[in-house]
């Protein structure tokens, strides 16, 4: 009987200690409705990037007997649903939530996540104010301050343009934050905003905005909006005979199929900043593009690569800690100070926007091409 009891205890210990540890992670995005301002077919690019990261880490996770279980939380195209999504995530078993890819979504979710002590990771939201919420909020994108600084310097010193028109969507947190920050940086580099024209991002025709610029003396136009809105504004300006250089930020995207479809083959001088380009020749980038195409039969975009990188960042935290409750995972995330992804090296400050290299893109007949790279450590090259 004693021998049987000992054998049973040994068997139970093997079952207990050899069992796979399940870590539940939430994905928060628009999975059900087409966006009116950006090409985002039901959060597909975001979801695909996350799944590809899981595939990449599958062996390391298996070696540590960890299984990551994904649960999707869908807030559609209505920002008002974001708060409901946060509460649903809090009541679930998830230890962290990755998503809230636009600044407007992330700004609504962040204070609630902080209050609930549920770690939130936004791969691409860039609003400056996101760095003010403290613990439990983790950001994978450089912020609007850095984008504005690079754009202002490039505009004044590279394009020799000092008198700038700015056309932001007034009902877009990302757009207005970036517009205000750009104006401050532009002044610092010796330029000035000669006119700011507010628009509504859901509009499809911006003829009135174009008419507001007739007879105005300016050198370039800054359009800090998401890709479909930005492309429609540029088309309206071109049709009004305005042929100045157009400037944008990461909201323009980097793959550009929908952006250039709106513009119907029109030629113009356009420059924007972004995190990454699919034709970069780094080993990690080429491997990522190859794996993405093999798995999903199309090219990745900035949403997918940022999701891949920041899901990888989350998995590194999961692998680094033995317990995976919310507080333990928060501590593990805060301890990672450097991380290298497909988009380059991340210098992390806990709960703040990371420092990262940035690309300046130029529009060509073939789409977006890399014009130059700006490194935090090497300057422009």
Protein structure class: alpha/beta
Approximate strand percentage: 15-25%
CATH class of the largest domain: Alpha Beta
CATH topology type of the largest domain: Rossmann fold
Low-confidence stretches: 6-17, 377-381
Instruction: Summarize model confidence as the mean pLDDT.
Output: 91
Largest sheet: 8 strands, mixed
How helix-rich are the residues, as a percent range? 40-55%
Number of extended strands: 15
- The run of helices and strands is HEHHEHEHEEHEHEHEHEHEHHHEEEEE
Query: Tally the helices: what do you get?
Result: 13
How many independent structural domains?
2
Instruction: Please give the radius of gyration in angstroms.
Output: 23 Å
CATH architecture of the largest domain: 3-Layer(aba) Sandwich
Shape: globular
CATH H-level superfamily title of the largest domain:
Response regulator
**Largest sheet: spatial strand order:** 7-6-8-9-10-13-14-15
């Amino acid at each position: 009987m004693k021998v049987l009891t000992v054998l049973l205890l040994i068997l139970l210990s093997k079952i207990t200690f050899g069992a796979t540890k399940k870590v539940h992670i939430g994905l928060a995005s628009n999975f059900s409705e087409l966006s009116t301002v950006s090409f985002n077919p039901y959060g597909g690019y975001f979801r695909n990037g996350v799944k590809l990261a899981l595939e990449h880490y599958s062996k390391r996770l298996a070696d540590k007997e960890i299984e990551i279980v994904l649960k999707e939380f869908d807030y559609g195209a209505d920002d008002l649903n974001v708060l409901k999504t946060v509460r649903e995530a809090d009541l679930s078993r998830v230890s962290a939530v990755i998503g809230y890819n636009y600044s407007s979504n992330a700004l609504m979710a962040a204070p609630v996540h902080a209050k609930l002590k549920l770690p939130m990771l936004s791969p691409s939201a860039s609003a400056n104010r996101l760095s003010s919420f403290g613990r439990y909020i983790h950001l994978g994108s450089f912020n609007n301050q850095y984008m504005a600084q690079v754009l202002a310097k490039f505009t004044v010193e590279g394009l020799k343009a000092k008198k700038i028109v700015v056309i932001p969507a007034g009902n877009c947190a990302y757009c207005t934050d970036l517009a205000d920050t750009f104006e401050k940086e532009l002044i610092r580099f010796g330029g000035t905003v000669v006119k700011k024209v507010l628009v509504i991002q859901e509009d499809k025709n911006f003829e009135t905005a174009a008419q507001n610029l007739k007879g105005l003396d300016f050198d370039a136009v800054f359009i800090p909006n998401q890709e479909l809105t930005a492309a429609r504004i540029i088309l309206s300006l071109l049709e009004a005979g305005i042929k100045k250089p157009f400037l944008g930020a990461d909201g323009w995207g980097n793959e550009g199929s929908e952006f250039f479809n709106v513009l119907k083959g029109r030629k113009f001088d356009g420059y924007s900043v972004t995190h990454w380009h699919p034709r970069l020749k780094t080993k990690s980038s080429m491997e990522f593009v190859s794996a993405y195409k093999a798995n999903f039969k199309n090219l990745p975009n900035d949403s997918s690569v940022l999701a891949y990188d920041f899901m990888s960042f989350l998995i590194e935290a999961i692998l680094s800690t033995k317990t995976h409750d919310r507080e333990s995972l928060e501590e593990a995330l805060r301890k990672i100070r450097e991380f290298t992804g497909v988009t380059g090296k991340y210098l992390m400050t806990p709960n703040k926007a990371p420092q990262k290299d940035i690309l300046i893109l130029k529009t060509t007949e073939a789409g977006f091409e890399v014009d130059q790279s700006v490194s935090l450590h090497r300057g422009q090259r």
